[in-house]
Amino acid sequence: MSISTPAGDNKRRPSVVSTGKKPPAGKSSSTDTTSGGKSPSSTATKASASKAAPGKTAAGKAGGTTSRPGGKPGASGGGKGRKPIAPVKVSQGRSWGPIAMFVAVGVLAAGIIGYGAWAAFKGSQPWEKKAADISGIVNYRDNPDKTLTEANHAWGPLTYKLTPPVGGNHNYNWQNCMGDVYDAPIANEHAVHSMEHGAVWVAYKSGLAADQVEKLASKVRGNEYMLMSPVDNLDSNVSLQAWGYQLKLDSVDDGRIDQFISALRQNATIEAGATCSGGITATGTTPRDIGKDQQQQGG
Amino acid sequence: MSVSVESEPESPEIDDAVPPARRRFGASGWLAAGVALGLLLGLVAGLLIVPTLTRPGEDSAEAGFARDMSTHHAQAVEMGMLAHQKASDSDVRTLGGDIALTQQAQIGMMQTWLREWKLGPTSSRPRMAWMPEGSAGLQNGLMPGMATDAEREQLRNATGNAFDVLFLQLMLKHHLGGIHMAEEVLKLTDDAEVRRLAQGMVNNQRNEVAAFQQLLKKLGAPA
Lengths: 299, 223
Prior knowledge:
Chain A is an alpha/beta fold. Chain A has helices at about 5-15, 25-35, 40-65, 70-80, 90-125, 125-130, 190-195, 210-220, 255-265, 290-299, and strands spanning about 140, 180, 200-205, 225-230, 240, 245-250. The interface between A and B is large, with 72 and 57 residues.
């Protein structure tokens, strides 16, 4: 391949220039030397080339623009010399390059498009699907008992069927959920309100080892829509809650903790745009009815 | 010579070369058709997929900025609301309300981007991972300028002039961190909307930093 191109250029140049002068001797002879022993064919081609040149010049003079008629005689003269050299095998050899390139480009393009499509599909998966894919997660939104996910405001202590609860009626005030890590149990009535706002509540069994607690805390601290607290008499070491969802786990190293947070934090809100700041920051399981007096006075 | 002849010498002998040229045209015709088909398929696929590929992706700087700045802003809203409720100085009270309202609105804008980009509001990626050497800027896992849990508690418990001063000091530090993050995303994105908001944050928060410094001077405290 590398040989044919320069050789072709050398051949072409005289014919294109075609000023009536003979093709530069030096160049054609150098072509001959590269082609080696096939002297008969090369001489024939050289002859045809030199014939074609005057032919073209004549045509150019006569017709001005018509180069075709001029080309004919010269070309037909050269035909004899050319035919024996069947270029088939050579052209077979050259076409592998482009073919391989196109195949490679095609495969690459298919790969890129395929990946894009896959990423688009994966990325556009709704959070509900991502939540459903977490093994062991319980979706209480589908539960026939709708009191589990009721969302009315109420004062005073409330009872919840689940420990910890995942929804239900709750206090007017929410627990602050700006990545707050509470070191003592908090009121369900406030925490449920935080989950209504989109928070993930990380609950752990009271008395869990400090290093285990710290592992959980590192996932919570500094992240809004997250809060964490110990829960007495929890039936597992860790229990993750978001509005209508729960996942109970035994290990703080379980990879599903991150999965749960990633799928549900902020997504699980039933009050889009509601915030986590301005809430109750105190601990204690008795709800704080802040604002109740004013409300009663007001009507 | 055989090598050279088959390639270019059609020019000297154009008409002789017609039959092989036609054959070659046949081959290259197929090739052209194949390329055309490929381009057509690419166009169809492109029309469907390009919108996905051109909007910021899960790990993009734009998405990382939108998520991290939402969190950063959320803390400014928390502190701003505290100032709005309990600052003694009326200028500090006004500034607190201004910061809370502005930054909450900006959180809404950034969250809307993420929805339009078909991305989740949060990510399990480390904070600041969208910034070159961003994670080096974290302090105890917190983004630059963020108040620690201890500082937040201190602020909640502070009263009177001490509250005003602490609020101004914490918010000054908070804004400097925020300005840094906004300047970083300006280096990384061409997205017009992201640039508009980030540049606005830089300009606005710089002005507010100057206001904090003036107020701290007025209250007789170091900046």
